[in-house]
Recover the amino acids of this structure.
């Protein structure tokens, strides 16, 4: 069976931008920039983008496209012993979808709650109390929250429908789910900056604090943000690259994807901080007391700002809808891209029929997701995300860059990339892949571990963090088992020393 292909270059590029631009751009980036030096953060941010982000993304597109393979198969083509790294990446990604879709479920609910601004003057009480009915800690799961369960069902159904016809249905979806959130961010941004007090908010985001650049943590955060934001190390970009023709331009596509992703982040920063400035002015508190990131920003702080926007309930409902539709369409492409990475991996190795895989995966994803749809689910979401989004990402990133940079050879990959790309890449690519990326990631990992020991994450009870750690450790074990199972495809095991064009 021939490998599926993207219908057009834009289908691929939009799908890649869609995966990269996710909730992280809207709720992680602005807060990250604000708390790591404001305007000065753009220095480490762009340094990280150019010396690590673009090279690793290019490498992932390159091996996916060059070997016409998902992450585990591409790793296998480089070295037999490396296959498990690809599985580690995609299984981690699969686990992420279990809770990412729960966040999608919350957003579905908030579309509804936006109508009439259901949180009134108490968005915090509404979110944690009325909506989540949050328990006191991870030890108490409480009952299932049915509105979330229903939202979760819708989220999985949607993912299934988008992926059902592979690149064909994905291509059609990203034509609107990628531009729409950008348009909505523009609208929200314009509304934001025309509100009184917006400038104060934007000052907090852009005013440079250069002293911060002396702190290695700020640099670590910049690199971490870039890696997470570009959706690397979870097998997504390798799978997406594998649906291109071997002769597709790689350098160009990488740069467009990376810059499109960053543009979305900046736009989100403006949309968020202008409104925070307005809210600070209205409530007479300093901006730094209202800022937040993550769940708190999306479901508490921004909703609170919405209820202060002039124009009455109808205008507020419309802004609320715009905000949550923006989050939904921003997040959905990231969610299904992770499922696609797993599907590509399973398809390559086990020749599983795409539709059966998707149905099975969606059901399993829904069932596992129920843990996060309980009253204590938020705690578990946070704990598991900490281990997957931070530790697994770092370890897989280190291993992947070593396998591609050293075992396959950065130079060989670069020769292939240059043979198909308009822009020619210099030897900085080799230095980045072989030295900069592994060294920087090892450094970040060490910093994280040191912090973790001093200050266990989130103040959660030790046993609950131990469970998070257990999940983290179980993934590579499972990955090794998957790698050991013989493939149904006899060509799967052939190690390739070069990327050639013969088969085409
Ligand atoms: N890049 C996404 C974001 O910024 C998160 C993500 C990571 C999605 C990895 C898919 C794969 O939100």
């Amino acid at each position: 069976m021939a490998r599926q292909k993207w219908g057009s270059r834009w289908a691929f590029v939009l799908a890649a931008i869609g995966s990269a631009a996710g909730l992280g751009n809207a709720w992680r980036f602005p807060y990250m920039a604000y708390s790591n030096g404001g305007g000065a953060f753009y220095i480490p941010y762009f340094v990280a983008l150019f010396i690590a982000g673009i090279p690793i993304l290019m490498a992932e597109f390159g091996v996916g496209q060059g070997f016409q393979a998902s992450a585990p198969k591409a790793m296998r083509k480089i070295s037999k012993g490396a296959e498990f790294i690809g599985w580690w990446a995609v299984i981690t990604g699969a686990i992420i979808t279990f809770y990412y879709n729960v966040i999608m479920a919350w957003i579905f609910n908030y579309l509804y709650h936006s109508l009439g601004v259901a949180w009134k003057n108490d968005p915090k009480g509404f979110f944690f109390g009325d909506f989540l009915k949050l328990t006191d800690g991870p030890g108490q799961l409480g009952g299932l929250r049915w509105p979330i369960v229903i939202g979760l069902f819708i989220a999985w159904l949607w993912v299934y429908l988008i992926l059902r016809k592979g690149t064909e249905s994905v291509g059609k979806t990203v034509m609107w789910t990628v531009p729409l959130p950008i348009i909505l961010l523009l609208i929200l941004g314009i509304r934001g900056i025309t509100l009184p007090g917006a400038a104060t908010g934007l000052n907090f985001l852009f005013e440079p604090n250069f002293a911060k650049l002396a702190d290695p943590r700020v640099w670590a955060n910049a690199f971490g943000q870039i890696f997470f934001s570009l959706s690397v190390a979870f097998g997504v970009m390798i799978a997406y690259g594998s649906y291109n023709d071997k002769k597709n331009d790689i350098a160009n596509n990488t740069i467009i994807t990376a810059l499109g992703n960053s543009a979305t982040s900046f736009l989100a920063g403006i949309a968020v901080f202008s409104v925070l400035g307005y809210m600070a002015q209205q409530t007479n508190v300093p901006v730094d007391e209202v800022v937040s990131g993550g769940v708190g920003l999306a479901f508490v702080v921004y909703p609170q700002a919405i209820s202060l926007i002039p124009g009455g309930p109808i205008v507020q409902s419309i802004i609320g809808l715009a905000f949550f539709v923006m989050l939904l369409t921003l997040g959905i492409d990231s969610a299904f891209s992770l499922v696609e990475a797993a599907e590509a991996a399973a398809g390559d190795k086990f020749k599983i029929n795409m539709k059966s895989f998707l149905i099975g995966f969606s059901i399993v994803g829904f069932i596992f997701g129920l843990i996060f749809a309980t009253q204590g689910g938020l705690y578990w979401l946070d704990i598991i995300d900490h281990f997957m989004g931070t530790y697994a990402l770092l370890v897989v990133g280190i291993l992947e860059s070593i396998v591609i940079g050293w075992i396959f050879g950065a130079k060989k990959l670069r020769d292939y990339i240059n043979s198909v790309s308009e822009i020619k890449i210099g030897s900085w690519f080799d230095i980045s892949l072989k030295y900069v990326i592994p060294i920087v990631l090892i450094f970040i990992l060490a910093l994280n571990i040191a912090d973790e020991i001093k200050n266990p994450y989130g103040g959660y009870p030790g046993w609950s963090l131990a469970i998070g750690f257990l999940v983290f450790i179980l993934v590579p074990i499972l990955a090794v088992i998957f790698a050991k199972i013989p493939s149904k495809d006899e060509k799967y095991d052939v190690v390739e020393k070069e990327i050639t064009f013969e088969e085409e």
Q: What stands out?
A: The chain has 20 helices and no strands.
